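call fold(seq) -> tokens
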Amino acid sequence: MREILSKWSNGTYTVWYVRDNDCDSYCRGAVGMMMLPTALEDKFTVDGRYRVESLVQVKLVGDPYPGDYSMGRTMRNSASSWNLKFVRQDCSILPDFDGHDIVTVLESDRIRAYHHLIMKNGAPYAWSKTEVLNISGEDQTLEMLSSFSLCHISPIETEERMQDLNFYRLQSRWAQEGKLLKQNLIDLHMEPCWQLMSCQVERYGQVGSMAVRGYFPWGAVEDAKYGYMVGAQLYHPASWQMELYQRDDTVAFSGGLADREFGHWTKVLKPGDSYAAPDAVISAVMGGVDDIAYALCDSQNEAMANIPESEEELPVIFNEYCTTWGNPTEENLTKIVNKIKGKGFKYCVIDCGWFSIDYPGEWWSEQGDWDVNAVRFPEGLKKVTDMVRAAGMIPGIWFEFECIGPLAHSYNTRTDMMLKMDGHVLTEGGKRFYDMKDPKVVEFLSEKVIKLLKDNNFGYLKVDYNGNYGMGPDGEESRGEELRKSMLATQAFFLRIREEIPDIVIENCASGGHREEPSMQAVASMSSFSDAHEPVTIPVIAANLHRAILPRQSQIWAVMRATDSERRVIYSVANTFLGRCCLSGDIYDMSDRQWELIDEGLKFYKEAVPVIRNGKSVIERNETMNYSKPDGAQIVKRTGTEDAEGTMLVVVHQFLNPGDAVMTKVPGAKEILKVYKEDCVNIGIDDGRLVISGMEEYSACAVLLRM
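ret:
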């Protein structure tokens, strides 16, 4: 018989803790966690043909591995998890957080597990945190530990109905981040077997130092029959995994550190030692994929209290990378600054190549010494930053401080400070990596990075990362654990920079979007959205990221070319209304008319800032489009919240094979406040719909509405 231990609700979602007292002897007493939108609370049932699965999924060396033919596919439901029995549950009020912490204590003869569910009043998300303590008198080795585990999705009807459930993930590859993958659970072969003697698992994630590679650490299950979704997002910069698991008439969803099988991870706990898994956020909402994405991303606003004051109005950035392509000099930067001063740019960023000596344009080969090139900057960087400041802008500079190129002096002389694998310097292609855990590295980079920033009065730092060192380096512990510690050390250096230069604005970049996960976003002010500098898919990628990060932190390229038509200029500038505006390109060769269109776009962007900063997005488009040849239309409607309440931003792009007109529902729209469009485009409101005509292939427009 199943027993409801407790029920908790914050008005948005409801969580039940259920103990199973009617299972096979080896799993009797398991305590699981189930979740629904509060609107469906009256439909909840504990009945059905399923096992309650532990809300803490863990595996200890020496315990039996899970059965059901699952070794090599999952480490869920091992004896270590089934051995955890309920001890108690406590609730603490968190007045500073405006919420409460529900702590569930589970225990076996070897470990004690603490699961925290931190619920903020009225927030659409909850934090899930897991910690285990070695209570035995001898060493215990972890080889799997979850951050969250939700069982019995969906706890509404008692009969199996996999056909009603869809699984969503966000895929990622270079310059094509965030593509939505939707699969019905029947297509994932998750219908139960006749005797429930095997399990089906979809385990996914990534291994290495780029957390967003292959997939974002994000996933959601939709119950299409009842119109709601349950989802989760991990806060972790290293190897991670998520698992959709089926053995009976329902499914479970869990995630956390990439385990021993998937991510080469183990961790030895001495008697009395404890270990915490990465944080996760979970949610259950009525609605579709954009609703669950909004709920999960909303948790990232908590870190926004720590950003510099200069970021509050989401100012416009100019980055010279697509102007000089890695060849910045005092001469061309002087030309750039003279052209853009007075045009509303807040940050002027010197990108890669300022250190290059012998091979102009091959900056990636010479990084790692971080000495200013005296030929490019004969009077040093200070002369340039003073010029930028005098023009009313904040100067910025690019670093990739974790990496060393093969032509750098340090490549062969500082190998004692680099990561090793199997006793050799860890080398990916031609790239090597500083060991960010090494105090000598921190001292060296403090001199080369932090001192340079201070001495030259920089107020903006772009931190790039264009490598990946895989399963992890040599060290005292497992490769997966050494990787985790290395990435935490990188984040610690970000925080050290912020501590020593409190008003510094930091941009998180990793070949564009390969580190766009929440814990990295939390140590930066914003992120480069992608290395998609000029392709027509920029608005598609930019819209995708509304489901993974906050638009206020998503910096989007608008690269201008002197050969651009008016349509192309508007298309490129309108892309940036889906996040943060970053201009680059042939800005000193643009015509007066082209600059008029740019200036008009920047004025529109600044009026749209409140709804970009605080809003909820809905994306309308063909999700199965070919990213090299997008077709149809994309409409992103962002409804303002908080200080932007009462406004809506609508950004429309037409790709190949556009229709005659674009129409989208805008119920309650009262008037058009501002537009950004070509002269041939007509926009109006008709019977609760926004109607746009006159758009052609690869064109864009944007509308601000009063609601």
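Residues 479-500 form the longest helix (22 residues).
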